[in-house]
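Suppose you are handed a protein chain with no further information: no name, no annotation, nothing but its sequence. What can you learn? This example shows the usual starting point.
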Amino acid sequence: MTDAYNFSDRIGRVEPSATLAISNLAAEKEAEGADIVDLSVGEPDFDTPENIVEAGKAALDAGHTGYTSSNGIPELKEAIAEKLRGNGIDASADEVIVTPGGKQALYEIFQTLIDDGDEVVLLDPAWVSYEAMAKLAGGDLSRVDLAPHGFQLEPALDELGEVVSDETELLVVNSPSNPTGAVFSETALEGVRDLAVEHDVAVISDEIYERITYGVEQTSLASLDGMADRTLTVNGFSKAFSMTGWRLGYVHATEEFVGQAGKLHSHSVSCAVNFVQHAGVEALENTDEAVAEMRDAFRSRRDLLVDLFDEHGVDVDVGDGAFYMMIPVDDGEAQGASGASGDQPRADDQAWCEAAIEEASVACVPGSAFNAPGFARISYAASEERLREAVDRLVSNELL
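A reasonable first move is to predict its three-dimensional structure. Written in structure tokens, the prediction is:
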């Protein structure tokens, strides 16, 4: 049978999401009866806080089931602006687009700013979809490797300065980071600011894990002098509020950007779901205690994993945010982290992750998916019991 479709060049530039591919494989094996410890997915294992659920139900009961204004309901846009002002950003509701998830916000940024051949700079390891979104928009990628620096940006500022130039159109900063959990220092972000101002570069500040930090303060890039008009702040509700399936996010930028990106928004998704937006107001205004409880649980899990890996001689670079950890792998054995030996490990991390799920029934994501070969990403958005089980399985199968 002849395929009747002529696929576009742009769709041929990208591969399916590696993180979702592993998660789907884990789900298939579970459906076949396997007991999989799934540490691949970036999804909190907590229920959405009850007050948010009730707010969603109340919005449904009140008839909030139709279209909203394309950029979002006024109550939510103002609540977002107030939240951003608390981060030191001079924000107004007119500078916000509410989107069906943070991914849509990012997609609209790339499509609005990037033309064929425009340079986009990524900080590796980088979340898998940045590369895909840049390629879909026709952008060319330049990259800076943070792995030799313990995944931190500050010691890599000179290298970043060698990459960013007047030809750079967009730089992507993700702090706290997926996949490393690194929280970039204010000094590092000031270095980004200096380069962005010098070369007139727009910067995405992906702050989706902003409220999941451990003993450190996260700095919003747009709060720094000189960055208000060149930062596109992306955030959402999936991670901090355990609302992954609700699909709610936003971008804050200048009114000029909102006017241009709003055209794409209106012609694609129309608007975020009405009743979900009302639940978002409740999340921002009345959920601090639940967020703190989830954050404390994540921190306890992170510390448990560090202790367990230490028991087995596995040295990891420990991040101060998000709920991810990068473990070094080499021919099926974990080695010292990049900062420990001075040499970044290079290995077939894909084979290691395949062995982990096939032999130990533990799902992890290959570091190569994030342009970090030689590592595997694990998510500790799982119970302490399951985390112990995962490490035990990896050890017993001689993968650690």
